[in-house]
Amino acid sequence: MRNVRGALGKLSLENALNPHAHTLLSSRTKRGKKREPVADEQRILDIIDGLEENFTEQEAYRIYIEFCFRFIPRIEHKIPEKLRAHLEAAEGYWHAGNVSPQALENARVLIWKYLDSHNLTYVPLRKSAAIRFMHQLFWDKANTDIWDHFDWCRELLPHLGYKNHTILQELEYVLSKATREGFAA
Question: Which domain of life is it from (predicted)?
Fold first, then answer.
């Protein structure tokens, strides 16, 4: 069952389905670090489930792309200037509709070549998280299920300094905007 992921993996299935499950874990880990609220994690997972159930694959992917765009202004300074120029192609494709899928693909290939030429393709994520996060904007359609896209995104965002609370806020904002304005269609 997909609702039992991440921090919730420490709970039994029965407790994971409990709406008060966040009270079942202590607020600190064994090392004394403050633990993020499990409720945020569960809400994120519920939203992703809802995307899969209530939207077509392409609509859910568009919501995912808009979610990613919400973080770009915050991480842009971590992206080499040479690669930042390619963000215009993604913006043009997804928002203005004036960039072809081929141009988007060309930019994606150039970004990957940059990662490869700088030996950043298989290094720890913290060294290339911003570029890899940006790279997601250069696919014109989902190449796997929406869960895999969000899992990858949620793996990258902590390396960029974002916690579940911020991820949840942005996800709720984009979902609300998609339902209100219908940009997912």
Answer: Bacteria
